[in-house]
Amino acid sequence: MRLSIVIVTHNRRAALARTLKHLDALACDGHLPSGGTEVIVVDNGSTDGTWQEAARSAQDVRVIRRPRNEGVSARNHAFAVALGEYLLLIDDDSYPLGDAVMRSLEHLDAQVQCAAVVGRIELPDGTPEASALPTVVANGAVVLRKAVIDRVGGFPREFFRQAEEYDLSFRIWNAGFRIDRFEDLVYRHEKVGGNRAMPIIHRMDMRNNLILADRYLPGPWRRKYASDWAMRYLALARHAGMAAAAHRGRISSWVWRGRDRLAPRRHLSGPAMEAIFGLRSQADRIAWWASKHRVRRVVIADFSKNIRATLEGCRACGLDVLAVADRHPAFSGRRWEGAPILTDESALRLNPEGVVLSNVSPARVEARLGELRRAWPIPVLGLWEPATLGARDPAWSAGSRDAA
User: Fold this and answer.
1) All CATH 3.40.50.720 domain ranges in the chain, comma separated
2) Which overall architecture, per CATH, does domain 278-403 show?
3) Residue 357, CB half-sphere, CA atoms under 13 Å: how many?
4) Which of 51, 81, 213, 268 could bridge to 43 as Cys pair (CB 3.0-4.6 Å)?
5) Among 128, 213, 130, 134, which Cα is nearest to 179's?
6) pLDDT confidence of 194, banded at 50, 70, 90?
7) How far apart are CA 22 and CA 301, in angstroms?
């Protein structure tokens, strides 16, 4: 068996039916391995007839019924019985476009140290969607090597949702494998409503990210990242009127972090830490840019999940960080590491000599760089560039470096 397609669903019968039809069309067009593909649907305790819909699909679908909703970790039940050499993970409302899967398989065949190939997720209006860090898997758009999953394990059962992709990705990098991302492998996410209760999202964002920091980050990085992420997710929760949910998440994280400390530490190795967070590579890029433009006074744009690496890079080459510029009202008026968090307009009035965009989310970098370069008449540096399968995107890469 060449490929096992794994889908988890809960009470989204119509969305699942549409996704299965898309898979059937891909198979007919030769965009899935001929005769070597299976589809496994894990039904998370649905009560709307979802599993019956899957069972009578035109596809040869294997259905695993669970008595209750186990969240994203329910995929582990499919991993245990999957026959494929590779695993395609999609949601019940997402699916690959064109030859994204076949090209991913070719790349994995050729690159034995690559554990996963992640594609670009687009919403129906073409807007991109991505994790905050480009070095993690995306549940709705990734092909994984099953042998690696067998080795490092599946999704953490305690997470339910939010940040589970980070936990798996950290273990993949720590085992000496890598995760490659290519923007020309495109997946559509229909973003069907339901199953997205906001209190749960804010509680799990806080809880699971604090568990991640304590579980995997070494030495002083554990405290720094935990503090940054706690501030970030609490501010976002307060702005959404969900502060109580975030506080519950923080308290819940203490319980799990205590349990983790009874087990052997799983700290990221030096190479894994660099691959995921890019502390050294970002510092090198900032130093090159600052020297080229003779920049000393800077503003960091966006209070992002990557802001710690950006700050450390600025400090390493002696730059004076005047402020953090962020357009989200959740952060307005706050301070971080001695610097005020201001609107773009207020930060510009401090007369910086350059701007460093901390945001490395593939869904935000290009648009945010465009905003900054139109509004700020000073050098602007981005810290992430997209790759296409086989080569860097020459237009994007040349444009970003020229503007930097």
Assistant:
1) 278-403
2) 3-Layer(aba) Sandwich (3.40)
3) 27
4) 51
5) 134
6) low
7) 39
In angstroms, the CA 174 to CA 2 distance is 26
Q: For 389, list phi and psi in degrees, rounded to 5.
A: -65, 115
The secondary element (H helix, E strand) that includes residue 37 is: strand 37-44
pLDDT (tens digit per residue) in 8-27 = 998 888 899 899 999 999 99
What type of residue sits at position 43? D
User: Above 60 in pLDDT, residue 398?
Assistant: no
Cβ atoms of 187 and 140 closer than 8 Å: yes
How many other CB atoms are there within 10 angstroms of residue 42's CB atom?
25
DSSP 3-state assignment of 131? coil
Residues 150 and 72 sit within 8 Å (Cβ to Cβ): no
Question: Which run of H or of E encompasses 320?
Answer: strand 320-325
Tokens of 287: 């130093």
Q: Which of 300, 290, 342, 306 is nearest to 321 (CA)?
A: 300
Give the distance from CA 311 to its chain's centroid. 21
Residue 73 gets which letter from DSSP?
G
Q: Tell me the pTM.
A: 0.92
- What pairs with residue 340 in β-bridges? 335
Fold designation for 3-189? Spore Coat Polysaccharide Biosynthesis Protein SpsA; Chain A (3.90.550)
Q: How many other C-beta atoms can be found within 10 angstroms of the C-beta atom of residue 261?
A: 11
Q: Where in the chain is the domain with CATH 3.90.550.10?
A: 3-189
Q: How many CA atoms lie within 13 A of 309 on its CB side?
A: 25
- Cα 371 to Cα 131, 353, 383, distances in angstroms: 20, 17, 15
Per-residue model confidence (pLDDT) at position 60: 78
Torsion of CA 371, 376, 381, 385, to 10 degrees: 20
Please name every residue paired with 23 in a beta bridge, in sequence order, or none if there are none. none
Listed in sequence order, the residues at least 6 apart from 232 whose beta carbon sits closer than 8 Å to its beta carbon are 303, 305
Dihedral angle sign, alpha carbons of residues 81, 82, 88, 92:
negative
Beta bridge partners of 178: 114
The string of pLDDT tens digits covering residues 93-130 is 999 999 999 999 999 999 999 999 999 999 999 999 99
